[in-house]
Amino acid sequence: MTNRLLRNALLVFTLWSVITPATASAGVVINEIFYNAPNDLHDLQWIEFHNAWDQAVDLSGWTVDDGKVYTFPAQTTLAPRGFIVVALNPDSLPRSTPTARPAH
Questions:
Q1: pTM of the prediction?
Q2: How far apart are CA 70 and CA 8, in angstroms?
Q3: Domains in the chain: ranges and CATH
Q4: Contact, 63 vs 53, CB < 8 A?
Q5: 29, 34, 36, 103: which is closest to 64 by C-alpha?
Q6: Rounded distance, CA 9 to CA 7, Å?
């Protein structure tokens, strides 16, 4: 994945969040993004989503870069005030990130 893909995903998600009617999904934001890995180690790239609402959000079918990078599987929910990380290579993340999901 290139830096351009992650920037595009961020832009699309941001625009989607702004123009989508106020629903539970509007409480999900991109909280953190790591796309400029040292030494061109692109496997280290990841996006962290945060549910700022006090109710769970169903992420089933949500995509990163129109599904080219990642599609959340059915029955994937993000807990109230919870976080989830989508990584190109979850094995490259610290073991302290149990919510990392492979993006392939």
A1: 0.66
A2: 14
A3: 3-102 (2.60.40)
A4: no
A5: 103
A6: 5
